[in-house]
Amino acid sequence: MADQPLKAHFAxxxxxxxxxxxRVSAYPDGSIRFRVDGxxxxxxxxxxxxxxxxxxxxxxxxxxxxxxxxxHNYVEWLESKNRS
Length: 84
Fold this sequence. Notes:
Helices cover 17% and strands 36% of the residues. The protein has one helix spanning 70-83; strands spanning 10-15, 21-26, 32-36, 41-47, 58-63.
């Protein structure tokens, strides 16, 4: 039998200055989930290991299309949005 999905015991939504929303959820097993509204995102940085007493996990998502210059795509999208 498959494990039942865990229900988040904490969830909070943050609205960014440009209107996008980020939802952070924490689960009883210690996992954390991020949900981000907006464009497709590219994982541009992930530091997930190290000394747990000194280091922190870092995950960076940049807007853009997979395999592309993410920041260029985001600027291009903003420019086209402003022309509309």
